[in-house]
Design a protein that fits this description.
- It is built from ten helices and no strands.
- By secondary structure, it is mainly α.
- It has one domain.
- The chain starts with a helix and ends with a helix.
């Protein structure tokens, strides 16, 4: 049975919200998409590109940005080429892998937030992109909670030291955004098992 227009719009809106939320977790800052990013995201979703593939591309871009000292905020535009050229835009409905190995690795850690995420992942049911999207919601909750509880002053000081040679090239708004993005990236790097890439790899292998 084909979906109604209302159902289609609801589906696209939910998917867009997942991408927006993940982008904010990665970079901090403004909790909305620019008009250009909004149009780009709609094009991808209507073309059948799945949310997990988009989020995996965003995380890959976030990691590369620090190496290249990119000054502009992380956006969907920055991953346009990687997303549109994705060889596997969605996970197959019958995924060859599972989250079991990932859950076991997370359960071996002492951090209560990681333990909670492991149990949430263990309780998920489904397959393909739908299972990956559920798992990525767990990933977002973990990283947002970790950020809320983190020693932000220390993380921002590390980011300040790393970006100091760019200070004169950025206005105050750009500088604040750059500091938060790098600080969040440093915190996220401490837990690579809770990422879009780790979820994708677990389900596709």
């Amino acid at each position: 049975m084909s979906e109604t227009e209302s159902e289609r719009l609801d589906r696209l809106q939910q998917a867009a919200e997942e991408v927006r939320s993940h982008l904010v977790v990665l970079r901090g800052g403004a909790p909305f998409l620019s008009p250009l990013d909004g149009r780009l995201l709609l094009e991808w979703l209507e073309a059948g590109i799945g949310v997990p593939a988009i989020l995996r591309a965003l995380e890959h871009a976030a990691a590369k940005r620090r190496e290249k000292r990119v000054r502009t905020p992380l956006s969907l535009r920055s991953v346009r080429r990687r997303v549109t050229r994705a060889r596997q835009p969605v996970l197959p409905e019958q995924t060859p892998g599972s989250l079991g190995t990932l859950v076991d690795a997370l359960r071996g850690q002492a951090d209560p937030l990681v333990q909670r995420a492991a149990e949430e992942l263990a309780g998920l049911r489904g397959s393909g992109d739908e299972l990956a999207r559920q798992a990525l919601a767990v990933v977002r909750r973990y990283h947002q909670d970790a950020w809320d509880l983190a020693d932000r002053e220390s993380l921002l000081a590390l980011a300040d030291a790393e970006l100091q040679d760019l200070r004169d090239k950025l206005d105050d708004k750009q500088w604040t955004a750059a500091l938060e993005e790098v600080a969040r990236d440093k915190l996220r790097a401490r837990q690579p098992l809770l990422s879009a890439a780790a979820i994708w790899d677990s389900l596709s292998s």
